[in-house]
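Inverse folding, one chain.
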């Protein structure tokens, strides 16, 4: 149940941040919005997780976790040591909208969403 509310909050914040960013508002959490990108979006075959070079991937514990809309973890890339990581669409084991979280040293830094076709 706790995971459900956490995911719901992530979705609401993600939608709100997108709408507010388009309205030219700037909030403190927006500074982390571009620290990780997953592209292309939508994913039709392979995808790239791109992490900003401001993150020290050599010493920090960096991971990206993908969740479906009911909060179940569908894929996790741990111990990321490169600024770009290639993932296969089939590894995601799910189609539709996925939410991803960037964690650095076990702290959630930012979230995003991606569509898998």
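Residues assigned per position:
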């Amino acid at each position: 149940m706790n995971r459900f509310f956490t995911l719901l909050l992530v979705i609401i914040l993600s939608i709100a941040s997108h709408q507010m960013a388009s309205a030219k508002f700037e909030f403190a959490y927006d500074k982390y919005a571009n620290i990780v990108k997953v592209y292309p979006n939508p994913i039709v075959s392979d995808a790239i997780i791109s992490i900003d070079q401001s993150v020290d991937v050599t010493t920090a514990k960096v991971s990206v976790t993908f969740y479906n809309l009911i909060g179940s973890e569908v894929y996790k890339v741990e111990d990321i040591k490169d600024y770009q990581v290639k993932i296969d669409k089939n590894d995601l084991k799910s189609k539709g909208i996925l939410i991803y979280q960037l964690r650095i040293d076990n702290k959630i830094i930012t979230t995003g969403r991606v569509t898998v076709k």
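The longest helix spans residues 2-22. Residues 41 and 94 are 15 Å apart (CA to CA).
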